[in-house]
Amino acid sequence: MSEKRENWGSKLGMILAMAGNAIGLGNFWRFPYQAAKNGGGAFMIPYFGALILLGIPLMLVEWNLGREGGKYGHGTLGPMVYLQAREGVKPKSAAVLGALAGALAFAVTVLVNSYYNHIIGWTLGYAWMSATGGYMDKAVETGDIFVKYIQSPGRFIVFWVIALGFLGFAVMRGIQAGIEAWAKFMMPTIYIFGILLIIRTLTLGAPVNPDWTPIAGLNYIWTPRWDALNWTAALAAAGQIFFTLSIGMGIIPNYASYLKPEDDIVLSGVATVSLNELAEVILGGTIAIPIAYTFLGEKGLKSGVGLSFIALPNIFRQMAGGQIFGTFWFLLLFFAGFTSAIAMYNYIVALIEEELGIKKTTASIMVFALYIILGLPVGLEAGLTKTADLAVLSELDNWVGSYLLVILGLIEVIACGWLMKDKALETMNKGSYWKVPKWFFTLFIQVLTPVATIILLFFSTKDYIS
Ligand code: PHE
Fold this sequence. Notes:
Layout: H1 11-22, H2 25-37, H3 44-69, H4 77-85, H5 91-132, H6 142-151, H7 153-172, H8 175-202, H9 214-222, H10 231-245, H11 251-256, H12 266-296, H13 304-316, H14 322-356, H15 360-385, H16 391-420, H17 422-429, H18 438-465
Helix pairs in contact: 1-8, 1-12, 1-14, 2-10, 2-12, 2-13, 2-14, 3-4, 3-10, 3-12, 3-16, 3-18, 4-5, 5-7, 5-14, 5-15, 5-16, 6-13, 7-8, 7-14, 7-15, 8-12, 8-14, 9-12, 10-16, 10-18, 12-13, 13-14, 14-15, 16-18
Residues 22, 24-27, 112, 116, 243-244, 246, 249, 340, 400 line the site of phenylalanine.
């Protein structure tokens, strides 16, 4: 338990860091293929439903747990100790929940990083290849280039380790000089690159087939196809909400733990969600799918990893200015992934620092080593199996999105809504510019959000078993 706490330097820096935490590969790499796979526009119905039922309430819950509980230790474990300190919460239930939540948050973060960091490495490698013309030779299929990239340790390891090194250095410098400074540079750049890419996308015309216009591509993602609206789509949508908002991992509470006791939660939390949705639906949804549609029509849109790393490079080398726009695209992905990975990295460093009393620099080096050890087997899969189907990576991604994040979310919402009850509403509104009304707290945080989370878990499990 440390008394000396770091704080955010400015409100703008804090919001950008929080938005950086949420806006990640999930917005640009995961969202487009989840939407395309699960019925295009129809996907948006369960998606926005989950945003309101789960996303916004859980975001507020996590900010609250983090700001209030952070002083008892970082991450999710601290907030649970905080429950224990509260009147009315039996020490035993708080301790059990705290242990569960802490272990789960730690496990999920490490698990996510075993594959997430690889994709960040690929984006850096591909940004480099875009800038230097590495995939511009039309005689070689971009699919083969990607397979070769992920199968050659000499290639993917270099960029992966560089990315991890940058992360380690950023975290070592601390909240203001490290995390906040990087977010202030990277977050606005993401939006600028995103807008430039949207302009390029919308001016592509119909280079291959007169029906394949960028607008037809936009229609593809926005027109609801009701027949595709089923349980699988709904589960995928809810999983995507958890993933994209960084909920259920302990990294939002960790960032919130650097707030001052009277800092606003409600408006800032909603602002973070809004910035994330802007980046996901507008930037994420307007770039990759319409570009791919303009060149390929409906085929090829459904592949996940393939959309960003195979279909798009293939298009960048055909379109005017493709090398520059390719560089923008992969740098955008890299910055998005990086500002999320910083949050995960910092969370584990904070745990080691506070729980084990180890210095930040040493803790950062320990996390670097941990990531290398755990990430190496995942990274070597493609090379060892001589395939590119990345079964381990997809399975991990599926588990994280479908279960693990959701279980932690459920623990948190029960802790806030049922163990802390009115105290939680009171602290949430303390210093907040907007106040959460009592009816919202009762309806959502006590009833709808936990019920929806339980239903989600039930159906995910059923889906998996059958
Ligand atoms: N929200 C971030 C993203 O969209 C980071 C994140 C990754 C959160 C994995 C949870 C799980 O990429």
